[in-house]
Amino acid sequence: MIGLLQRLGLSSERCISCGKVFVGFSQGYLCDECLGSIKPIHPMDYSNRLEYVVSYRVFGRYESVLKEIVHHMKFKSSKSLALLLGKAIREHLWEYIEETNPDIITFPSLNLRRLWIRGFNHVEYILIGAGVPYMKVFKRSDMHKPMAFLNAEKRQKAVLEHRLKEELIDFLENKKVLVVDDLLTTGSTIERLAYLLMSIGAQEVHAYFVAKA
Question: Which has more pLDDT, 1 or 183?
Answer without folding.
Answer: 183
